[in-house]
Amino acid sequence: MKSRLDLDEKIERLFSTLTQVGEVGIEPGMVNQALSKLEKSGLEKVPAFLRALLVTDGTVTMALEAYFSESICINTLRQGRLAIPHSLSALEMAKHEECFFREVELLGAESGTCYGHASSILNKKAIDDDLFEQLVDETVGIGVILRNVAKGSFREVLDVGTGNVMVESDLYRTYRVTINSLPAILITEEFSRAVYI
User: pTM of the entire structure?
Assistant: First the structure.
């Protein structure tokens, strides 16, 4: 398996945020209620496309490409094994279990604009070896791999919120990927509102 990462302040903040995430996704009919807390927090009106990104259960990379008319590149900032500092009920993982952590930026190929930042926690016990090796490819987005390879996967948005989780951002969403009925991946994507105005 890949190299070992040390716990730092940003990763600790991510895991602290994830301990507050429930196990039930945002259901149809509850989207506006989930998004209303963003604007109640004092954040200016969230642009329509960004509102849609926050609750989509599709591939964000493809939506970004379509909206901004440019290819999206994955810039892997770091990835490796990590002992989780808190239990994560959404992944059915206990404190100190080993996960695989990946942190990336979603960059416009031509503009260099950072459209988003994603932090992924993979529960290796729930992912077969072949799929795992593809998921940790530093040049490809996890969503693209899941769409093309993991046909039995299911995504559900568990939380949307404001504030800085791993990077300076205005908004974030956390979603879970279930593979073969096992909670396998938690992904937190962060967005800066100014990029979407």
Answer: 0.91
